[in-house]
Amino acid sequence: MKQFESFRIDVQNECLWRDDEQIPLPPRTFAVLRYLVENPGRLISHDELLDKLWPDTFVQPQILRTYMLELRKVLGDDARQPRFIRSQPKRGYVFVAAVREWAQENSVASSTGSVNGHGNSLHTAIPVAGTVDSGGNPDGELIGREKELRALNAHLARLADGTRQVVLLSGEPGLGKTALVDTFCTAFCTQWTGSAALARGQCVQGIGARELHYPVMEALAQLCASAEGERACGVLARIAPEWLPAPARNNSNSANHSDHASLARSTSDLCAALEELAAEKPLLLVLEDIHWADEPTLEAISALARRRTPAQLMILVSFSPHHMPPDHPLRPLRQDLRMRRLCEEIALEPLRRQHVAALLRKRLGQEELPQGLDAFLHEHSEGNPRFLVAILDHLIAERFLVRTGLNGEARWEQRTPFQQMEAGIPDELVQMIELEIGRLAPPEQRLLEAASLIDVAFPAWAVAAALKEEIAETEEAFDDLARRVPFIHRAGHDELPDGARSAFYAFAHRLYRDVLYQRQSAAQRARRHTRVADRLGRLFAGREESVAHEMAMHLEAAGLWQRAIDVLRMAADAEPKRESNILAEELLRRALRIAENLPAPERERITLELENELLAPSAPTHSAKKRKPKQTSSAAV
Asked: Do residues 483 and 605 both lie within one domain?
């Protein structure tokens, strides 16, 4: 490991450590930090960083600002007085902290398990060794969630002394919350058959907010239908008859058969009933997706968490913060319970690369993977298990991965270079993302479509240019979206040449950007790309070379091949000491690639000129000294 001050880089697990605290980082953010730490004390240009981390893919340099903002926040660094990362304006970054090798010390952790009244060790209730897969895998096994399962085990162990446990399980869609809960509940039932009870309910979008206590009633119905059903129905009928599920109520002697029983349900009665059920043996109450629950359900969870009556009661609730608007009642409840230390939150993080590799070995049924497949899928799924499995299935369906050989010799092999695997998005993910986008108003969808023209990270001024809107109004609209939708967030600000600032935003995942980009017609995209390129030219008039890559990207996407080539040649001419500067050569080689799109006569002439310029790098190009990119009447300023 590499160490700097109290931090160290864990390459094997792709995470950051501060003393004994593990700090998970998204894959790209970790890759940026790792490259900086492995090259301390020297200037790393924007282009070098982009080439190393995004090979064979054009990415706007502005995206680096998003990662630097995130890293400075994690490291507690100040851009004005940097301890770790110093920015060199318009050039790159220098990692200024001293870096040394870290010698890991061996340590042995031991613990003793509590034993409940039935003679079972609660510390070892749920085995975690050898668990496989983490959500999104139909095989139902679990990989990469050993730490989370150990944390759930620890809470289960604390029930022995009658201390109730409340655990919040959070994570973005697709990270495997349900898979983790499934594994925990299955092992709980297996280990505690006859000596514990499980009540599990799930809130359903569109139903939970309309039907009072929907997930709680589902959990009670499951409990009453289980081996503990007779006892559970008896306790509910005696203490909380309004909470009896309909089938049990119809079969009981309870006097309350009203269809309006839900209106009379008392939260204190529910708490008392569950506490009595959990007085003799552990009771696990699981409520899933409570971001879709009604307020009375959340109030019941709050009451259960605050009660002081001893009970072997564990409450496990799952939710997605990305589906919670700012005014969602779960937000203050979550904050209050955490502040009062009445709960613990387990936040699922994306899978690390070694977990992706383990999942691939499991799915493909072979130990040796096609070279680079785990890195490719880790990058494109960003560690989201649902996305990862969908992309893998897509690669197989498109025959990018092919099974060869016979019987025991059959193996999966890569048949297509990774850069050619970019095309296409799995239909399953397209439908999922389209569903989220479709809930937004048409003007908001239009705003996001324009944002997708830039990159995963994008400045508001560029979106305003694409749509011919005012920058202030565009920022206001994005700020509102960032508060309401899970797949967009504010990421900082962009400083313009005139000193003005424009807010910077980012998509939560590249797939959202890709779907939004494909929704637009080619003609519409071309118009909008041209407007952004024209705005760049006007903003950076006189020094267009500083944004040549961005301008060329938009012009190329708009099909304006000649203009894109002119911009790149002009930028190459502006590079000082061309004989020792590889940047000029990269610009000219990119222009050569774009020239392949020109008609035959023009293509041959431009190609010859560019090849001559590459052979004579110290000489100015034949006409580029004063060449400026042309402006079109479509510019929106």
From this structure: no
